[in-house]
Design goal:
163 residues, alpha+beta, HIT family, subunit A, five-stranded antiparallel beta sheet, 6 helices
Length: 163
Amino acid sequence: MNILWAPWREAYVVRSSGDKKKKGCVFCAIFKEKKDRKNYIFLRSSTCFAVLNIYPFNGGHSLVIPNRHISDLTEMTTEERTDFFDTLVRVKTILQKAFSPNAFNVGLNLGHLAGAGIPEHLHMHVVPRWSGDMNFMPVLFEVKVMPVSLRKVYEAVVNAQKN
C-alpha cells in the first residue's frame, strides 16, 4: 500500500495514543471553550451541540454531541434524548440547505469495538452523501480526497441557518 503523508493529523494520533499532555475529553473542552468558530461548532441547543468533524468522511460530516459527559444513550434524560434527536433533525436540515446532498448516513458507534474514536463521550455522526461521492481514489489507493475545506463548510452551515 502506498502512503499519503498527512502530518496535519499528527495531533489526533498523538492524543489518541496516550499523550499525557492532552488530558480530558476533547468534546467537553470545545464545549466549555465557547470559541465556536475556532472549534467548528455551528449549533448549540439546550442540552447538546453540533460540530463539524475535523477528520470527516465527507464534506459536511457533522457530530451531534450532548453537553453532558456521558458515554451511552441509557445515561440520557428524556429531555436530553428529545433534544439530541431534534438537534439531529436541525443539523440534517442545515446540511441539506447548505449542500443539497442526495442522501445521509446517520449513526452512533457505541463503544470502542463498535468503532467509536472517542467512546467516553456519546456522539452521533451525520454524513452527507452525493451520487458519485465514492471515486477511484479510496477504491484503488485507499485515499480519500476532500474537495472542500472545513472553513468553507463551516461558513456554508452558518449561512444556511441565517436564510
